[in-house]
Amino acid sequence: MKASKGRSIGTRNDRSHPVLAVSMGDMNGIGPEVILKMLPELVQSTEGSSAGILLFASRDAMLRCFPTVFPGLPPPAWLATPKQENWQYIGSSLFPSDPANLPVPEPSEIILVPSHGDEEPCEPGRITGFSGKLSMEAVAAGIDACLSGSADAIVTGPISKEAIHLGGYNVPGHTEYLAERTGAREVGMMLVNDAMRIGLATIHVPLCDVSGMITPDLIQTRLKLYSRTLAADFGISRPRIAVLGLNPHAGDGGVLGSEEREIIEPALQKLRDDGMNVSGPWPADGFFGSGGHKEADLVLAMYHDQGLIPLKLAGFGGGVNVTAGLPIIRTSPDHGTAFPLAGRNMAHARSMLSAALLALDMIRRRQATNPEPR
Questions:
Q1: Contact present, 217 and 271 (Cβ < 8 Å)
Q2: Domain 1-184+326-374 superfamily per CATH
Q3: Domain ranges of the chain
Q4: E strand residue ranges, 277-328
Q5: Strands 188-192 and 197-200, how do they pair?
Q6: What is the mean pLDDT for each group of 10 consecutive residues in the chain (374 residues)?
Q7: CA torsion angle 242 246 252 257 (round to 10)
Q8: Which CATH architecture describes the domain 187-325?
Q9: Which of 12, 70, 181, 287 could form a disulfide with 373 if both were Cys (CB 3.0 to 4.6 A apart)?
């Protein structure tokens, strides 16, 4: 593939500015809308103006969404006029298949990397296998761009777990797929907003399976992983981590469950002996009710809703999902596809913008400590 005039092709070796890969998410959800709202704010911001953007998306879906978001305005050049790139699609791939040959966007430049033209129409609010497949292929293309060095981080738009299953993907969600695609052995899910940081011990699993998954090894592995992430990506060298119990009242001395006394407490003591600053296990309700999260750099929750309900209550629509343990940087908004809002111009882009800005901050922090290109 040839670069357009005036643009080079290459990896981080060939540029001094960051590049973000952005995946559209489910085209029938609010992904296209929040991306269209987020991008102008991003490239006009102090932090984002130095970054180039590779947007992996359906041009048709974005064009269909644009008049709803910006009625009466013409689409921007990056959307209205296709770049004269000789995009190469292999087999049934919906996105260009050679990530090393992606064009390099200049600072504040947005380049749409389009899906294959032969696709189903966008149907806001409808869950389809094609929209699920398209959303995941956009993620895959963005991951590959990061692994090849064409991008420095990926910011993923919201997907539908039901749609991706209909599209043939047997994974619970983004986190697990990212681990599989990148070959990461151990990953964790962190949610971050202005009020708190939450790390999850178990991620996308049914509640009935949680207790059986809580082991000393899981607790210690997760805490070490999140501790490394806080140091590398947030600049917190010796983080204070508070750990929640699994059961009501953190087991109440074994009366309401034995996991705290038999599993969690011994695991934490071992980490304390090794020098880690961890506390708990704390009763979850009283911990958040008394403001304990304000004294911690991260709170480890035993399961998804235990941590995410208080986080979203404290700041829904402004949080960021960070995948810890990957060889690449990945962030995403703290919300889903919101199918009932799709096509109605009612979605906010705060969380998507926060995800992009945090990704850029993480890029700069990593490059400051490891300036050698990949």
A1: no
A2: Isopropylmalate Dehydrogenase (3.40.718.10)
A3: 1-184+326-374, 187-325
A4: 278-282, 298-301, 320-324
A5: antiparallel
A6: 34 78 97 97 96 96 96 95 78 86 93 86 94 96 96 97 95 89 94 95 94 97 97 94 96 92 97 97 95 96 96 85 96 94 95 97 88 46
A7: -150
A8: 3-Layer(aba) Sandwich (3.40)
A9: 12
